[in-house]
Amino acid sequence: MNRVKNDWNCSVPLRLMQTKPEQCEIASPENNKDQDFTEIQEGPYLNSYPYMHIDRFDSVPSVLQEEFCNSPLLMNEWKYYQELEAFTGLFQHMIALNSFKYWDEVEKDLRANGFHPKGFSIVEFIKWEFLRHSMGIENYSKAERIFRQFNPELLKDAFEKPTRIPAPYHASHYYKWLTPNHFHTFFLRLVEDCVHYKIIVPRIVVADGLIYRTWAGNFTLDRWANPTDPQATRTVHNKKYLGKCYNAIVFYAWCGSRWLPVDVRVITGSANENAVFHPLVEDFLNESPFKWDVFLYDSGACSAENRQFLKSEGMISGIVARKNIKREVILDVGHKRFCFADDIPNGMSLEHYKRLLNHRSQEEAGFSGFTTYNNMKRMNTTGQDAATIHVLKYMILQLLHALSAYKVNRPDLLMMYSAFSSLI
Fold this sequence. Notes:
Layout: E1 4-5, E2 11-12, H1 14-17, H2 65-68, H3 72-83, H4 91-97, H5 101-112, H6 122-134, H7 140-147, H8 152-155, H9 168-174, H10 180-196, E3 204-213, E4 233-237, E5 240-254, E6 259-268, H11 273-287, E7 294-297, H12 304-312, E8 316-319, E9 330-334, E10 337-340, H13 350-360, H14 363-372, H15 384-407
Parallel strand pairs: 3-7, 7-8
Antiparallel strand pairs: 1-2, 3-5, 4-5, 5-6, 9-10
């Protein structure tokens, strides 16, 4: 492996060390007509390199009270959001700030197919589900006991009939009719809202796997001696046995100070990431209405075919390399991480590319609430459809929090999992 050390203790291939400045491809109005350029004046710090601003993002726009907080409830609370930094919002405010009319459309379609609600409209049941996950309650029996202790006066701003508490059999009935497509459609509508308000800026996408347990036992069999939840598989990750799991490949939009989910694909826990990377990412790119310039992923999918596929889609490949690669030139970028020399695009410095790779690990922070706050690391059902709904509910909550923080002019709450979760 041809590797030399430079002055800042970073391995650089010999071909990069020998490259002259005039050999670098510099953007200009002639060869980059799709970009806006200003005339370059004299000065040592003025340049027009094409990737100079690729990982720089504007702050979330500010809003006024009249734009979103017109109801009596929110008008009274607006001043607390602006004057008290310690005030992180209430669950009732999140419900009031966002539209759930989509679920009324879902109920209308399901009723036409024979669905009959058991004491709750679908939108009411969905709100109870979001409250359960916001409070980190794992199962429905525990949720019913806790919800019955609440003062209905606290819930009247979020629910039409706060005295009606869902029981476990309600969840069983409603989830026989609700499908992953219902939740996915609602999630994508929230993504479009975030893009419209410039909370999400589609440019850099970061993907990683989120592994979580199914309710089925690792070796349990049903009455016919078949494995329970056959779509889940026993999973080993980083030499640690995790049991029977699913793996959600979550796509996040990295936007500087914030990173939020934009799509997800759920696979079985033991699937080889190198093998499934191409079809999953291709499906994501085909379904996404946005254009992405950079794709970041970990070394689990670092095959040459996967990296070449990203380049053929017109994106910068930001897949980190394993240190034992022998057939390609790799660079030591510090902190026991490596990258492929051929993945650095012309016109981008090594330090800039390293900075892009550093953004990849920040997606892990987006997963932390799944385990630590929302307590969703283990499902209470089985099946891949249920697994998809399970992770979609978590991602919907993230976007609802982000939209609510934007609408009350509190961008500091965008990435706070505890925001808009309590009732008092």
